[in-house]
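INPUT
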Amino acid sequence: MKKIAVLGSTGSIGLNTLDIVRRFPEKFEITSLSCKSSIDVLAGQIMEFRPEIASVLEKKDAMDLKSRLGGSISTKIVFGDEGYKEAVSLKNVDVVVSAIVGSAGLKPTIEAIYADKEIALANKESLVAAGDIVINEAKKRNLKILPVDSEHSAIFQCLEGNRKKEAAKIFLTASGGPFRKKDISEFKNITPEQALNHPTWSMGAKISIDSATLMNKGLEIIEACVLFDLPPEMIEVVVHPQSIVHSMVGYVDGSIIAQLGKPDMREAILYSLSWPERYETNFGFPDFSMLDLNFEKPDFEKFRSLSLAFESALVRKSMPCTMNAANEEAVYAFLRKEIRFDQIFEVVENVMNKHNVFSFSSIEDVFYADHQARSKALEYIANNH
Ligand code: NAD
Ligand code: MG
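OUTPUT
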């Protein structure tokens, strides 16, 4: 029985993770649940899964949750940084599903590694912001970080059973988002409602906007470099609108191995938890008689996020963290309708251009760079809306 802590249990990945746990009661058990503030949903999850601990961000939500649950349930309710730390560090936890959105996921993910837990990683922002630190801390403890992101799960699967040193190219697939065919001159009129409407995947708000700007692919370029220890030159982004080919690895002899499946995150989540085994599901296969699979080049001029991400991946050090933090602030400003869609690129580029790159010697340096980039982004947003 694998005992699981879920960080971000009320989000899109969190809900899909619980769906997997529900399907395999003989394989998986929930030990702790965490979210920011969706206490209605969390209360329902606690009633169903009876975890040892549940954590939220604010004390007032913890109090509210406690009174809502009454005295009948033994789940301990905790809050804040210490709360998340306790939730992931419990002796009874084998694996932590890291599915908080944004760089808020970094602290609890690092705490989980410090507590010797395996990680099923959805929170790509923590690898982008603090890749080397996260990977080195996990390596020191001989811990596995299994990818939940569908492309990285695909790459992982395409590398399995092969020699990594014989891999020559990673073809990172991208749906292209809802604005693949829109002219760049129309970008300034795109509304948050249009940008949230992803053609193939159903996801949380932040990653949906990132998919529309293709910054999600940008973050994934860096995530792949960090996770698989690859130079950015080996990564080629391929637009594949149907999201059936989840990514591919090309080998030195010209052979390409691809991983395919329906665009359903539950498959990647399940594999991150069942690896090295595969458990039987009724998810089924794509219906190829109904499908045309297409592949295109991405448009780097329309989607400057890709160039910015490749630049960050080359520079490394504090640059990816800076790009990620600026992007987060830009995305939330766009959702609040403080900036236009096309200004998301502008904010990120501006903050990156002004950034003085430095090396991280501790996790505190990462928090410092993240904070600096957010302040710079907010300043730019305030002056330009
Ligand atoms: P979401 O917005 O649906 O859910 C986010 C979760 O994080 C919620 O449970 C929320 O309560 C929690 N949270 C937010 N801020 C927090 C904070 N400050 N402290 C504690 N908890 C906090 O997001 P999502 O779409 O599920 O994405 C989660 C992560 O997984 C992101 O990093 C995303 O890039 C990655 N990811 C998501 C998908 C997908 O299909 N949704 C696919 C690949 C990777
Ligand atoms: Mg992905």
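end of record. The domain at 2-147 is CATH 3.40.50.720 (Rossmann fold).
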